[in-house]
Design goal:
With 149 residues, the protein is mainly β. The chain is built from one helix and ten strands. The termini are far apart.
Length: 149
């Protein structure tokens, strides 16, 4: 299967000096790893917005989604707090990753550590139309846990 990638302009900020531009780490990777541009200790149960040293010009009609790295989540309890985080196409500031430490130990983030993955994704906008009634479905208004045990 072949596909054409979109082009995203990337600006290296002063705190990104010496860091690698986010990149795919394997041929089948969906996300590009992004690194920390600062060193910080995140205490157990706490969170921090970690600088990455880069700003992007995302094309209109696309977003960048920020997602956790599975190894950090599994081994250390480190995850991205607002998963997936969305970077809108009209934002031009530094990309930051909100990490939360759900582990039992404090976690050291070092400059250059891979802290998250980013995915370029198309955006589908919607028109919301207010109505008096919705169509019926088998599930109806059954909420959390209503479709199984």
């Amino acid at each position: 299967m072949s596909f054409d990638p979109i082009n995203i302009a990337v600006k290296r900020l002063p705190n990104g000096a010496g860091l690698s531009i986010p990149s795919y780490e394997s041929a089948g990777a969906a996300g590009m790893d992004i690194c920390a541009a600062e060193s910080i200790v995140i205490r157990s149960g706490k969170r921090a917005a970690i600088a990455t040293g880069f700003a992007f010009a995302i094309p209109e009609g696309y977003e960048i989604q920020v997602r956790p790295r599975s190894g950090l989540a599994y081994k250390n309890g480190m995850t991205v707090l607002n998963t997936p985080g969305t970077i809108d196409s009209d934002y031009r500031g530094e990309i930051k990753v909100i990490l939360v430490n759900l582990g039992d130990e404090d976690f050291q983030v070092n400059k250059g550590d891979r802290i998250a993955q980013i995915i370029a994704a198309p955006v589908q906008r919607a028109n919301l139309n207010e109505v008096d009634n919705l169509d019926d479905t088998e599930r109806g208004s059954g909420g959390f846990g209503s479709t199984g045990v």
